[in-house]
Amino acid sequence: MSVELLEKIREALMKGKANDVKVMTEEAVAQKISVGEILDKALISGMSIIGEKFKNNQVYVPEVLIAARAMNAAMAVLKPLLKAADIKSKGIICIGTVKGDLHDIGKNLVRMMLEGAGYEVIDLGVNVDAQKFLDAAKEKKPQVVAMSALLTTTMGSMKSTIEALKNAGIKVKFIVGGAPLTESFAKEIGADGYAPDAASAVDLVASLIAA
Ligand code: B12
Asked: Which domain, by its residues, includes 133?
């Protein structure tokens, strides 16, 4: 019975049916299915299937966004219970689109996939300068700082941000992404990792945190 309900939630999530997902999540809670189980077996697993499909071009940005919206609807139900159950997040990530750059669709996808995978993500928004990344790193103590850039003219500020945090003695892993970026650019500026899409970003973060 509970397995069936979790499967239904997962299916509805993958179809982006936010309201169905919310209602069934409430039902699962009422049936005393644990928050961890709802997360792992329905929500996170649904988002990771969507992520894989996105990586393989089987679904596109709109499908990922509506699935993520459904995920958020379920998370609104679970968040208060998560605190009570003291389920630990897998790690803290600070993410932002770098200074001068207002593109945030890709950054938001990365944030949602990371949240879907069980990380606590602090979203600093767009046009984030080095000082703001530095302040957030000091205050929130993330394991990973993630930067997005969509303009060739703003990619350079990733380098200055990494330098500013390193010079301030902040011990954190840096990951970067965005359409114009490459693996070799990431290496060149001293980032710890680059990922071409949101699902790979989740794998990258997992490997960096495990290391
Ligand atoms: C939508 C869009 C806009 C929207 C942005 C809306 C928004 N809220 O984001 C608006 C209209 C505002 C806009 C404005 C501009 N844009 Co624009 N825009 C685009 C467009 C069409 C799509 C970008 C997008 O959302 N893609 C979809 C997402 C899902 O893909 P993504 O961002 O690459 O993210 C994925 C990966 O890269 C990765 N990823 C992303 N971030 C991160 C971060 C980490 C840490 C990791 C690991 C992975 C990762 O995961 C994501 C999901 O898989 C692109 C063209 C294109 N095809 O890329 C142009 C484009 C990026 N824009 C461009 C330009 C020039 C501009 C403007 C300067 C235009 C102008 N003259 O005003 C302004 C700049 C404004 C500014 N200061 O930022 C150029 C950039 C050229 C260049 N080489 O620099 C492009 C390439 C269009 C073009 N062909 O000329 N733009």
From this structure: 92-210
pLDDT at position 82 over 80: no
Asked whether residue 74 falls in the same domain as residue 124, the answer is no
pLDDT in tens, 9-60: 999 999 999 999 999 999 999 999 988 889 889 988 898 899 889 889 999 9
**CATH code assigned at 43:** 1.10.1240.10
Atom nearest to 176 CA in ligand 1: 45
Decide if pLDDT at 211 tops 80: yes
For the chain, the residue count is 211
Question: Ligand 1: does its nearest atom lie under 6 Å from the Cβ of 51?
Answer: no
Binding site membership of 11 for ligand 1 (Cβ less than 6 Å): no
pTM score: 0.85
Bridge partners of 93, per DSSP, are: 121, 144
| 198 Cβ below 6 A of ligand 1 | yes
Last residue of a domain, one of 44, 68, 85: 85
Distance 101 CA to ligand 1 centre (A): 9
Token pair belonging to 174: 């840096």
CA distances from 68 to 73, 105, 159 (A): 9, 12, 30
